[in-house]
Amino acid sequence: MIEYDCEIRGGGDGSTGLTGDPAAGQTVFTANNRAACHCADASGGCALSAPPIIGVTAGTLDGVLRGDEAHPLKVELSDQDLADLQAYLASLAGGGG
Questions:
Q1: CA distance 29 to 22
Q2: Helix axes 79-93 and 58-65, enclosed angle (nearest 10)
Q3: What are residue 4's DSSP bridge partners?
Q4: What CA–CA distance (Å, rounded) separates 14 from 7?
Q5: pLDDT digits (tens, 9 = 90+) for 38-81
Q6: Burial (CB count <10 Å: 0-12, 13-18, 19+), residue 72
Q7: How close are the terminal C-alpha atoms of the chain, in Å?
Q8: What is the model's pLDDT at position 95?
Q9: How far apart are CA 97 and CA 95, in angstroms?
């Protein structure tokens, strides 16, 4: 299994340097219905003009999903959930976090 190091900042509790698990991140992606708008492959455009989120940074995810950046569906994620989600999205791009 490939591991991705992610720095989580912004809306969380301030933890940094968490290692994300892509398999757990896929579960977070599915459980929070991200595919409804961003499509099952995270390529975007399935609803609400959702952008592609493949390879998006942890900082961006944090700001959009838990922080002050605009997003129609805010979710409560732990720092580990966020690191896992970012690792999953990075794995779709074939790169690290």
A1: 10
A2: 130
A3: 20
A4: 10
A5: 999 999 989 878 899 999 888 888 888 888 887 777 788 999 99
A6: exposed
A7: 15
A8: 53
A9: 7
